[in-house]
Amino acid sequence: MKRVLLLATTTGYQVRSFGEAARAAGATLLLATDRCDQLDDPWADRAIAVRFLDDSQAIEAAVADCVAQKPDAVLAVGDQPTVLAAHLNAALGLPGNPPAAAVRSRNKLQARQAFSHAGLLTPEFQAFSLQEDPAALAADAEYPVVLKPLALSGSRGVIRVNTPAEFIDAFLRLRALMTAADIRLERDAAHGALLIEAFIPGVEFAVEGLLSRGEFQPLTIFDKPDALDGPFFEETIYLTPSQQPPAVQQLIVDAVGAAARALGLHHGPIHAECRVNDRGVYVLEVAARPIGGLCAKSLRFDRPGGQPEPASLEDVLLRHALGEDVRGFTREQRASGVMMIPIPGRGIFRDVHGVDAARAVGGVDDVRITAKPDSLLVPLPEGRSYLGFIFAHGETPREAEAALRAAHAQLRLVIDRDVPVI
């Protein structure tokens, strides 16, 4: 029985899905997570305790612990584990991404530099220390521009500004954000700077795919029907298959493949974001991991040979990691979509009414509320999570979208005002 080592944070949503995929493939799933190493198996999952910090001591210790388990394949979910996964694959002699490429994929400045060097469409960009004088930077900027932390994901900290006054406010807001406890714990030097780049007008897409020893295999293109023009960039709905003309879809696939090569990525799942306008395709990022959160539940694949049971994305990724040829897996014929339920405002989450009514909407597959009662909800740009997810199918993407919006309209959130303690 083959053994797959999955690197994931303790808050990762996809661990259970990978466990189901491993059982279906007749494999054993091993876990390495950022759990506390001073407690004896607090999650009852027998996970190896590792740190995902990008420093040599943490990597050496984690590699030593994980290699001792002798896995046949290594997978990572979430941004933080991707660098360690690259080091593990190198240590085990398994196909994977070079560690330097994994680092580049996590750093927005290094990625922009790689894309520009490869001749890809790239906006004007510069990086500055967070200790710079924002007023001086604001005076020199050509608006509109977007401010981005170098190593945060999920649009966290990304702000569009149109005037010098907005620039100064956003800069100071990001400077404060980067002092958050969870960010400081990463001890990443990249968190001391931010990227300032020209705003790219256009329509945004997400691409899910696989690299097989350098060859890019697209799995799907997601349309994003809601405009993402700022000032913040909270994503809501993903729909697939894309309704763009085949020629545009091919341009997107070609650009993402070229961007992955520019970063030096070689083998494993990738999740990419891009914008398309009349100039062409701008690749925003290529992450060396699958789509995050529970969004993968919106994807189902027909198995080769006409097998009746559809495969999950995790099933496809696990089989690919084990060396199987997965080119015969194709996305199902019906349209599907997911809504990442937005957080309307900062406050203490108490309850949500109307979940059963939302699930009863035609075309809706499920509604999952992932926020915990009595937890603090924080919207973007400071926040890093969603309230939950809605999943739907339809004969067309428009039908799936209508089901998602109708289900969301059924939800009534109970959120108390956050009262700061003095």
Give your account of this protein's structure.
This protein is 29% helix and 28% strand. A hairpin with a 2-residue loop joins strand 9 and strand 10 (215-223). Mean pLDDT is 91; it is low at 36-44. It is of the alpha+beta class. Among the domains are: 3-104, Rossmann fold, CATH 3.40.50.20; 124-198, Dna Ligase, domain 1, CATH 3.30.1490; 201-287, D-amino Acid Aminotransferase, Chain A, domain 1, CATH 3.30.470.20. The chain has helices at 15-25, 56-67, 81-92, 99-106, 108-117, 134-140, 164-177, 181-184, 246-263, 313-321, 355-359, 397-410; strands at residues 3-8, 28-33, 48-49, 73-76, 125-129, 145-149, 159-161, 193-198, 203-212, 215-223, 237-240, 268-277, 280-287, 300-302, 311-312, 330-331, 335-341, 347-353, 364-369, 376-377, 388-394, 412-416. The strands form six sheets. Strands 3-2-1-4 form a four-stranded parallel β-sheet, with helices on both faces. Strands 5-8-6-7 form a four-stranded antiparallel β-sheet, with helices on both faces.
